[in-house]
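Hey team,

Filing this mostly as a record. A colleague (T.K.) asked me to run one chain through the structure pipeline before their review meeting, and I want the input and output archived in the tracker in case anyone asks later how it was produced. No errors, nothing strange. Just documentation.

Input sequence:
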Amino acid sequence: MNAVERPILEAIGLTKHFGGQAGFLQRPKPPVQAVSDVSFTVRRGETLALVGESGSGKSTLGRLLLNLLAPTAGDVIYEGRNLGNLSPAALRQVRQELQIIFQDPFASLNPRMSVADIVGEPVWLHQPLNRGQRAERVAELLRTVGLAPELAGRYPHEFSGGQRQRIGIARALIVEPKILVLDEPVSALDVSVQAGVINLLEDLKHRLGLSYLFVAHDLSVVRHIADDVAVMYLGRIVEYGEGDRVFDDPQHPYTRALLSAVPVPDPSAEAARGRILLQGDLPSPTERIEGCRFRTRCPLYQLLDEGRQQQCRAVDPHLQDVAGRGVACLQTDQEHLLTEHATAAV
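Output structure:
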């Protein structure tokens, strides 16, 4: 990529809180802090993967980028335009270029509409094509995603999960977008069909020059498709950088724990590498945690001396440059303790 080329999409300090208002004769409840001060870029023609446990704010962040949710604070810049400042008419025009593919390929398709109507509806909304032109365009897109045009008259319940997801992809592509937000697009599919959908998405990215924001929790899938990776925990990015660097040399203890949980086909290699276990579940997003928000589950924190632990309790770390990527951890120079502990536990 040319060093002066501007990213196609930028998130700047995005924050989203839900609730917090008082009801009738009720005290105000603490807001749900779904996303907290998140910034990143999506480069043209490349894939940024957002990974993390369920409840970390990944899907909410994807919807903020498309302006499907209004941010509490922060900006989304698409090709130099701030989406929050656009008029409704201008935003409607931009929405052709920003599309989403949902996680559940059955719930996201209207069961009362035929495939022809589902795939063709965005064209009817955004582009002045007559019925014949729409039918031709639908047939072309169905062929593109690997479905026969003769299936256009059928309904969603007549298709398998993988076929329904291909219909969802065709619906997103019909208005010729530049960016696709892929909200866990294969997590609801059988393992036997996941590879086919992932390979289709990769082929479409290169053939059509698309940019992807790929939301996922399956790190084996992410490694195959991502150029850059952002690891989220409790609404905040804790590690962000080039995919190969993050996977080959993770710096944040949360990233290391996630990668240690990825299954390895060789049982001997699985036993030798050691497993880093996280205790408990994600804290409540309404809970205010002083200092590092990960320290309540951090295995490295338990191995630190009292002085280091006090640092973690006092400071909420932001991304800083470590080994060529952004890492939100104060104790990256102590990572050897985590490796030694995991190895000793084998």
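Quick notes for T.K.: The chain has a mean pLDDT of 88. The chain is about 35% helix and 20% strand.
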